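Mods, move this if it's the wrong board.
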Amino acid sequence: MATTVRVAGGWVRDKILGKESHDIDIALDDMTGLQFAEKVNEHLTEMGVNTRRIGVIQANPEQSKHLETAACTVMGMSIDLVNLRSEQYDELSRIPNMRFGSPLEDATRRDFTINSLFYNINMGQVEDFTGKGLEDLKVGLIRTPLPPSTTFQDDPLRMLRAIRFATRFGFDLDSDIKEAFGDISILQVLRTKISRERIGVELNGMLQGANAGEAMRYLQKFNLAPIIFSPVSETSLMTHDWSKAVQVTEELLCADLKEYSVELVCLVGMFSNHVGVKALNSKKVPEPFSMVVIRDFLMFKLSLAQQVSAALEGTTIIVNIASKIENTINLQEYDNSKFDEMRLELGRFMWDQKDLFRISIMAAIACHPDKASAIRKLDQIGLEIWKLEKLWENEALCDGRTLMSKLKIEKGPVVGILMNMQRDWFIMNSTKEKFDIDECILHLDTKKEKATEEQMLILKKKLEDSARKKAEFKLEKAKLHQAHLAKLLEAKNRAESELC
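Not the wrong board. Structure tokens:
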């Protein structure tokens, strides 16, 4: 078989940089990836080696995936196979006409020079057909083989990839790339034509890198942040100032938050300018802005979206509690029944937030520097004076079943009320060296009748709240729909005026 087999792109780049790489892409000069994969499997079968089914990733030009890719497993390694190709564009379409190409044509249509290198397996040598890849690796430069406007028009997602690679390797962006970032037409295609899932994958790559904060700064600097961190329909956010969000992100990354993932810290920072803001989810129901974008548009895990939203909502509660702090009173004076209400409020919040409390505190400080002193004092009081940290992990706590047994009550809503009363007892007795659960049970036994009365009041309030919330929900939904339609009309009128 006369086929020249070349390893392409990332594997070659990483090996030259001395990094591990398991991302093996093979480029073939005279047959398709599927044809070659079938021949590989035939050869392995002849050798008595078990083979796996060949996977085929179909071309999807609308998502800038222009060529079919075959995937197979050889000796336990996953390998992607494609043919060398050349692309020619019709003036009226973004979708290229594909044909077999030379190594030079294939190298020049790739995203960046550092990813256009080949390792020729037949010859046993590295090939740099652009003449720039090896030098750019040496000096640390992200540059496109073709003019950046051409490369980005082919696939606008490459704008995000440029930032990801630059921050991953600590490389500089070529000046021509920086200039191309200002091309409104390419930004528009990135915002409206590229799937949010693909954008989410690139963002995730940035967040997993060693310089996530710098990546967020680049996104803000080149006006890419509103494309990534907002729904497609929210055109008003294209002119929003994201510099404050980046500043908060950088402050959080510098804080002592090692117990949290960089991904969580960055997302809390980048959505910090939308606390309290609602957006329509995929079912047209209003939800916290961060929840909708992270879960529905970036398609990250639901648990991550919930953590970000909870941490951000917590900042508002922290600021409200901190506003009650009296600067003239020293710390020890807060160990006084005069501040029981504040103690209970903070304790309940910490109990609800659990491990998210620390990032909520730091985010509140970063978002509200004018209240930073009061927030820090509140934090200190909670930890040192009231000793509220991790009360919910105390071994003396009774679960619902144990509480029912000790208090001789039946299963029902009243158990939940008594569980909350147990929580409050622990908060108000948090400074004790050892918790006496029998003392707590005696306290709760005297509260059973009150708990039943409270249950009835809660049920009544729930009915009233349900009716009120339904009315408020309908009103908020109508307002969001009206705003959405107004933005669409504005965009339509703008497009029509530009055509005229």
